[in-house]
Write a structure and sequence with these properties.
The complex is a heterodimer of chains A (about 290) and B (about 50). Chain A has about 290 residues and is mainly alpha-helical. Chain A is built from 15 helices and three strands. Helix content of chain A is about 65%, strand content about 5%. Chain B has one domain. The radius of gyration of chain B is 13 Å and the shape is elongated. Chain B starts with a helix and ends with a strand. Chain B is about 40% helix and about 15% strand. The chains are: A mainly alpha (about 290), B alpha+beta (about 50). Chains A and B meet through α1, β1, α2 and β2 of A and α2 and β1 of B. β2 of chain A pairs antiparallel with β1 of chain B, so a sheet runs across the interface.
Chain lengths: ~290, ~50
């Protein structure tokens, strides 16, 4: 199908792991992988697909975009006749996806002043778009809006808000002007986990992320071990979470528990090179250790 | 055989496509220029190894 599409379009793939591609990815505001962008012969972005649900959906959307259907331009034209909030929300999302925060915010406002009243689900999605756009134009306000969403119970919106804030804090840590700014960003990032924790006690993915973050940063390792043990129990020994627990034990200096835990993961995935590498790393530790 | 090869070479676009896949093998700037010259859309896919 790609071969057939290439008869009427020029199709090129770019690997973001290559250093020479990173400037291009930044210029196109690529936030997730894969991202597919349809560009007109004049070089203007028509629309983009972020992520990948399944091959047929991707192809269907791509084909629609190449014919100008459901693109940003198409929706803006249609919004003249459709005064409802949904189409305005979709336009706001498309502007946000291509990195135009100001237009995204303007269309969020238009959606909120639409003739038809929006429902709670639509309001949440508008708040999410607004929060993400504000991270570019007014970061403290964006953090405030997204933090409220992220602290809610497990939902697509709270997970997306949390991911956006995580990305924001990781960027703030990486590009901090000085040691104090870096420390502040690290503290805020950890605070984000703490604030969301009460509502995410039964979410193994969240507990795993928190424990891994702590292991990476060498922060509150005892609490991280507790969260990782809980995540392992809820997930019934998911090897991807056992690996986190093993890493936390390693950071705590507990060689015996680290090796025993990674062995539980290897039992399920005996050929996994990453897990084998982790085991070798743990075995190089001095002594046995009983902490944690 | 020579005649066939010549015809095949003429049929190839300015930028070579990866055999059978349809993905352009040149640089992004070359692909952009080719799309402009042919008045085609350019489809740019960012991906990663992981």
């Amino acid at each position: 199908m790609v071969s057939r599409l290439s008869q009427s379009n020029v199709m090129i793939r770019q690997n973001v792991d290559k250093p020479e591609v990173q400037a291009l990815a930044k210029a196109y505001h690529v936030k997730g992988i894969p991202t597919t962008i349809v560009i007109s012969p004049k070089g203007e972005e028509i629309d983009r697909i972020i992520g990948y649900d399944n091959r047929s959906d991707w192809m269907r959307t791509l084909l629609a975009y190449t014919y100008g259907v459901d693109t940003l331009g198409d929706l803006v034209s249609r919004s003249a006749a459709d005064a409802g909030p949904d189409i305005r929300r979709d336009i706001a999302q498309k502007y946000l996806d291509r990195g135009d925060a100001k237009e995204a915010l303007a269309w969020v406002d238009k959606a909120r002043t639409a003739d038809k009243k929006s429902d709670a689900k639509l309001e949440t999605s508008l708040a999410l778009i607004r929060g993400e756009a504000l991270l570019s134009t007014d970061p403290p306000k964006g953090v405030e809006v997204l933090s409220k969403l992220a602290q809610g119970g497990k939902s697509d919106a709270s997970e997306e808000a949390f991911s956006s804030l995580s990305r924001y804090y990781r960027g703030a840590i990486k590009h901090a002007a000085d040691a104090q700014a870096k420390k502040q960003a690290e503290s805020d990032y950890l605070g984000l986990y703490h604030a969301a924790m009460p509502n995410r006690q039964d979410d193994p993915g969240f507990l795993n992320d928190y424990a891994w973050h702590c292991a990476e940063q060498g922060l509150e390792l005892d609490k991280a071990a507790e969260a990782a043990r809980k995540a392992v129990a809820i997930s019934h020994d998911d090897p991807g979470i056992l690996d986190t627990l093993a890493e936390v034990y390693y950071k705590l200096g507990n060689k015996d528990e680290a090796v025993a835990t990674i062995d539980r993961a290897l039992k399920q995935k005996p050929e996994d090179k990453y897990l084998m590498g982790q085991r070798a790393k743990f075995l190089k530790m001095h002594g046995g250790g009983t902490k944690g | 055989m020579k005649k066939f090869l010549a015809a095949l070479l003429l049929a190839l676009p300015i930028g070579l496509m990866a055999a059978g896949t349809g993905w352009y093998k040149g640089t992004f700037d070359q692909a952009k220029a080719e799309a402009k010259a042919k008045d085609d859309n350019l489809i740019l896919k960012f991906y990663a190894d992981w």
